[in-house]
Amino acid sequence: MKKILFMMAVLSVVAISAEVKEGVGKGYKGDIKLGVEVEGDKIVDIKVLECKESANIGGKALPKLIEQALVKQSADIDNVAGASRTSKGFKEALNNALGK
């Protein structure tokens, strides 16, 4: 019983420490809305909540942008070639979510 209570307490602390913030930026075909999960100063995950970008260009760029942002822990990332407006909108949304 003590182990179960301890595990529940640990899971509660983990759940409380993670926070999802939302940000919006202007892409090529409309708004890009992101959900950014942060723990303290660390970006843990980024999800695209809304996006009207084309699947062939913007849709292919977003996973690359997410990967770069997670590695650099910042919106200070390179644009994806051929998707400069999507890249700009992604960075704007990420900065808005992070309060920058």
From TrEMBL:
One of its GO terms (molecular function) is FMN binding. This is Predicted NADH:ubiquinone oxidoreductase, subunit RnfG. InterPro entries: FMN-bd. One of its GO terms (cellular component) is membrane. It holds the Pfam family FMN_bind. Residues 27-98 form the FMN-binding domain. Keywords: Ubiquinone. SMART domains: FMN_bind (SM00900).
